[in-house]
Design goal:
The protein is elongated. The chain has 939 residues and is an alpha/beta fold. The protein is built from 29 helices and 28 strands. Helix 13 packs parallel to helix 17, helix 21 packs across helix 22 and helix 26 packs across helix 29. Among the domains are: 238 residues, no CATH class; 232 residues, no CATH class; 72 residues, 2-Layer Sandwich (Alpha-Beta Plaits). Strands 3, 4, 5, 6, 7, 8, 11 and 12 form an 8-stranded mixed beta sheet that branches. Strands 19-20-21-16-22-23 form a 6-stranded mixed beta sheet, sandwiched between helices. The longest helix is centred in the N-terminal third of the chain and has 29 residues. It is a multi-pass membrane protein. It holds the Pfam family ABCA12_C.
Length: 939
């Protein structure tokens, strides 16, 4: 039955986009189980984090960590420090003011880096007797010397009945590390001594005094430390000494070897103007300098008291009694696991989308489905827009589920950070991830390889980021520029953004504040702003290069980077053009061209000069040469092939394996570029106008290119839409196509193609090539694998379909060629050896009968004599064990004479079997192939 539903014009951009979108949605519907498993992965991880959080909360809910009563003592007990973090402290304890002093191991001494002659000898570090160096400068040295002497007392006065008040009247210092809060002064809870500063230490320089802390009393060791006062001529000299004395200690923490520095500037009896350098050893990692609040005021108080004593006498003091922390409410102990582990876990969750997109793209490439869609009219624009939008929609849904899951179950990582920042971050990254998948898909041709490498990248990125990159982020001394360089790798950029979300939510939850807000992006310690910029720029660049490389690979030639301007370029004419007859520098020795081949070539040249509209395909000296590799010579697959094919004709190409038939088909359908020459399909040049040719072309490839989870009906609906069929015309065309190839009844049409037999797949491929009634169809061995009944049915379909379209068919079946083809071309070693209809070829190359006779070996000579009597020019073509075959020229033999001679021979010697047959197309094929083979050699 003839399919009359031909599209009047090529499908528009949006028609193609609609076809691909519908196919993708159907494909997605078939993968519901896979999608559920994909979404369950982040859900399971979120649940796991909740379970871990619940276990920790149960531990922190114990009395040991809660504000309450422990062993009949209620409220904060400084002897039980576990409760300090949770109980309200309405009246924090008063602590004596201290100076931050360097440890004896790191006090300034004379070294190659500090080559100052007034610095102590390095040997003092051996017994821990190095003094605390304090630098002074100013415009009036004598005035400055007086003030510096007044700052450091010469004796220590301790009242054992009121030790804490006594500490305030002396100058004390500590080398302990400060805490984030000062409810507990670490100097009194450390094994390190507290130092009291004096101008000179005596023999008994160590004291042990009782210190009352809440309800407990401890013995505190006080050790004398000499304050070495050194004058410098300018503030730049002080800066130089302090800079050189700033280094890393054994604990990899920053150490300041100078205790303090003072610049009295223009101070005098009437003016008090001082700049102070303070020791910032153990500055808090959060960037919040607790030393400035807890231990710097003592430096200010010392110089202030010294100036007062200069003005009013040594008995005048401005007493600095204590420092104390601000009161705090009850704060339950919190430990947000999601914020701490979210960086690593959620990196894996988001990166999991990458293998999904990559393998989907590589699958289409491996199965040649992309080129199959293109050959049936799908343009690059609709493919990119729909494919990209399709993966973007899936990624957005995935990320929404991820965020909603985390929010519903109460993960602080999601609830505390501004959702708009999260949306922008996730949106930019998934776009970058999709673009990267499109780019990397060009490097893979095997789905399994792509899958393995993609998942190695996923888990490797998470581990490297969590256990290497994070340490670089946290190390404030690590150059920020190198951090940005590492963030150029998208996986590290993702981790950095998630790390910032984690830190913001963790800090906000601990401190009772909010998480990340847009204003926080201006914070120099927050890397989110740089990450967003890097990912956005990379998204645009990667997308551009992915599209460019896709165009390069699809055309096998380099293109201008300004691909987006190609729409403004002047389009080529679609009419025939006489190409320049250039040669590629190789020589081919070909035997004298036969009359039918020469006639076809002249016909092509005439059509190029005076084109007519009834010739759908015109090939002009089309050649394909594959370069030699590994020392092998060049391979001439197609040699200056000329062919003119009008509409309504089915042209069959016969040839042995390796003759070049598939290479010819591949050039015609755009899979490969011709080495020289060209061909015109409906007036369009295959070298430059394949996109236009695809809109009116149908292809049945040698191997079935099908989506295994789509049904036969869905395949035809998709390709029918690409051919601009719509509505009832589309439905009718699909049903007629299914019926014509016997796939309509018994539910076969709605069965997944992956469950089809080989013959059913072949029939579906033929139906796809004819859907939409294309004007040019290429069929590469269409009946391969079909049973006899299906083959006969398929031949009927092709015979009906060829009425007003041009069909090029390759086959190894001589019977199929005789039934379907109006003309045949026997193709050997890259070129035609003969062209004509089956009867002409058999008449031209088959002017003989084949006579066969089987006798005993003893009577073989009798058979030869019989044949010589029938035809003196007979030729033996077969001989084995008494069975012989001969070619008898038709003009020398009458069939009646043959029968009469055989009957006579039977009376003279025994004959087992005999036969007389006319020449078949198969005989013609074998004869032409044998004759042609020796004449094609490379020079």
């Amino acid at each position: 039955m003839r399919n009359t539903n031909r599209a009047n014009e090529p499908a528009s951009f949006w028609t193609q986009a609609n076809a691909l979108l519908r196919k993708n949605l159907t494909f997605q519907k078939r993968n519901v189980k896979t999608n559920i498993r994909l979404i369950l992965f982040p859900f399971v991880l979120c649940i796991l984090l909740v379970l871990i959080q619940t276990i920790l909360n149960n531990q922190f809910d114990k009395a040991k960590y809660k504000c309450g009563c422990v062993e009949n003592e209620c409220g904060v007990q400084y002897s039980d420090f576990d409760q300090v973090g949770t109980c309200p402290i309405t009246n924090p304890m008063e602590w004596p003011p201290l100076l931050q002093t360097p440890d004896p191991r790191y006090r300034a001494v004379r070294t190659d880096f500090l080559p100052f002659s007034d610095f102590p000898n390095p040997l003092c570090r051996n017994n821990g007797s190095c003094p605390l160096t304090m630098l002074f400068t100013g415009t009036n040295q004598s005035f400055g010397e007086v003030l510096s002497r007044n700052m450091i007392p010469s004796t220590i006065d301790i009242d054992n009945s009121n030790v804490m008040d006594s500490f305030a009247t002396n100058v004390l210092g500590s080398s302990t590390e400060t805490e984030y809060t000062n409810f507990l002064e670490p100097a009194f809870f450390s094994e390190l001594p507290i130092y009291y500063l004096q101008s000179q230490c005596g023999k008994n320089s160590t004291l042990s005094v009782p210190v009352q802390i809440s309800t407990s009393s401890i013995q505190q060791e006080l050790r004398c430390a000499q304050a070495l006062r050194l004058w410098r001529n300018s503030s730049s000299e002080v800066n130089n000494a302090i800079y050189k004395g700033y280094r890393k200690g054994n604990t990899e923490r920053q150490i300041n070897e100078i205790t303090a520095g003072y610049d009295f500037l223009n101070s005098n009896e009437d003016t008090f103007n001082v700049s102070i350098w303070y020791n910032s050893t153990y500055k808090n990692d959060t960037g919040f300098d607790k030393i400035a609040l807890a231990r710097i005021p003592r430096s200010v108080n010392l110089v202030s008291n010294s100036y007062l004593q200069f003005l009013l006498g040594s008995g005048t003091k401005m007493l600095f009694e204590f420092v104390k922390e601000m009161p705090k409410p009850e704060t339950p102990l919190k430990f947000d696991v999601a914020s701490l582990l979210g960086g690593l876990f959620f990196t894996w969750v988001i990166l999991q989308l990458f293998p999904v997109v990559l393998t989907s793209l590589v699958y289409e490439k491996q199965q040649n489905l992309r080129i199959m869609m293109k050959m049936h009219g799908l343009g690059d624009g609709p493919y990119w827009i729909i494919s990209y939008s399709y993966f973007l929609a899936i990624s957005i849904i995935y990320m929404l589920c991820f965020v909603i899951f985390g929010t519903v179950i109460g993960l602080k990582f999601f609830t505390m950070n501004d959702y708009s920042i999260q949306f922008v971050f996730y949106f930019i990254y998934i776009n970058l991830q999709i673009s990267l998948a499109f780019l990397l898909a060009s490097l893979f041709s095997n789905v399994k390889t792509a899958t393995v490498i993609a998942y190695i990248g996923v888990f490797g990125t998470g581990l490297l980021a969590g256990f290497l990159f994070q340490f670089f982020i946290q190390d404030t001394s690590f150059p920020k520029g190198w951090i940005i360089v590492m963030e150029l790798y998208p996986g590290f950029a993702l981790y950095r953004g998630l790390y910032e979300f984690s830190q913001s939510s963790f800090t906000g939850d601990t401190m009772g504040t909010h998480g990340m807000r847009w204003g926080d992006l201006n914070d120099s310690t927050n890397g989110m702003k740089e990450v967003l910029i890097i990912m956005f720029v990379e998204w645009l660049l990667v997308l551009f290069f992915a599209y460019y490389i896709d165009q390069v690979l699809s055309t096998r030639s380099w293109k201008s980077p300004l691909l987006f301007l190609k729409g403004f370029q002047k389009k080529h004419s679609s009419s025939f053009r006489k190409p320049s007859l250039q040669r590629q520098g190789s020589k081919v020795f070909v035997m004298t061209e036969k009359a039918d081949i020469h006639q076809e070539r002249e016909k092509v040249e005439q059509l190029l000069l005076e084109p007519t509209t009834n010739h759908a395909i015109v090939c002009d000296k089309l050649s394909k040469v594959y370069p030699g590799r590994d020392g092998n010579p060049k391979k001439f697959a197609v040699r200056e092939l000329s062919l003119a094919l009008p509409e309504g004709e089915c042209f069959g190409m016969l040839g042995p394996n390796g003759a070049g038939k598939t290479s010819f088909i591949n050039m015609m359908i755009g899979l490969t570029k011709p080495t020289s020459g060209t061909a015109y399909v409906q007036g369009l040049d295959i070298r430059t106008d394949m996109n236009g040719i695809y809109t009116s072309m149908g292809v049945c490839p040698q191997h079935d290119l099908l989506w295994e989870i789509l049904t036969g009906r869905e395949h035809l609906l998709f390709y029918g839409r690409l051919k601009n069929l719509k509505g009832s015309a589309l439905t009718q065309a699909v049903e007629e196509s299914l019926k014509s190839v016997n796939l309509f009844h018994g539910g076969v049409a709605d069965k997944k193609a992956g469950k089809y037999s080989g013959g059913m797949k072949r029939r579906l491929s033929v139906a796809i090539s004819l859907i939409g009634d294309p004007t040019v169809v290429y069929m590469d061995e269409p009946s391969t694998g079909l049973d006899p009944a299906s083959r006969k049915n398929l031949w009927s379909v092709v015979n009906r379909a060829k009425q007003d379209r041009a069909i090029i068919l390759t086959t190894h079946s001589m019977e199929e060629a005789e039934v379907l083809c109006d003309r045949l071309g026997i193709f050997v070693d890259g070129s035609f050896q003969c062209i004509g209809n089956p009867k002409e070829l058999k008449g031209r190359y088959g002017g003989t009968y084949v006579f066969s006779m089987a006798t005993s070996i003893d009577h073989e000579s009798n058979v030869e004599k019989l044949v010589q009597q029938l035809s003196p020019n007979a030729k033996k073509i077969y001989h084995i064990s008494g069975t012989q075959k001969f070619e008898l020229p038709k003009d020398e033999v009458k069939i009646s004479n043959v029968f009469q001679a055989v009957e006579t021979a039977k009376r003279n010697f025994p004959v087992s079997a005999w036969g007389l047959a006319d020449t078949t197309l198969e005989d013609v094929f074998i004869k032409v192939a044998r004759e042609a083979q020796p004449f094609h050699t490379l020079s």
